[in-house]
Specification:
Helices cover 19% and strands 38% of the residues. The chain is α+β, with helices and mostly antiparallel strands and 129 residues long.
Length: 129
Amino acid sequence: MPSQPSKELETFDNPQPQRDYTIRIRIPEFTCLCPKTGQPDFATLHLEYIPDQLCVELKALKMYIWSFRDEGAFHEAVTNRILDDLVAATQPRFMRLTADFNVRGGIYTAVVAEHRTPGWEAEPAVTLP
């Protein structure tokens, strides 16, 4: 198999570090294992971030997300771990990870975790007519 899962997150220089702008990434094929039953859990991950000096490289992100496929993890733990790893790699001004897990036993789970660099404040929202 030419590609393998990896825990390494590669980055590249932010082409516009002087500007606050939002990067949104949708990852619809996240899987991990239920730590209680060993059955697969499926989720769509929604990553939003305002980069500072670095951006996450997408192929590396794909391989990183793939690395959870055979790991047992509670939804809350895996969401926070992914956020922590992404923050450590990119040091963003702001990052939010929303994990929307598919139904399991009649229950949907959505976990939202955020990071905000101390002292950074979002620009006021612009409302257009």
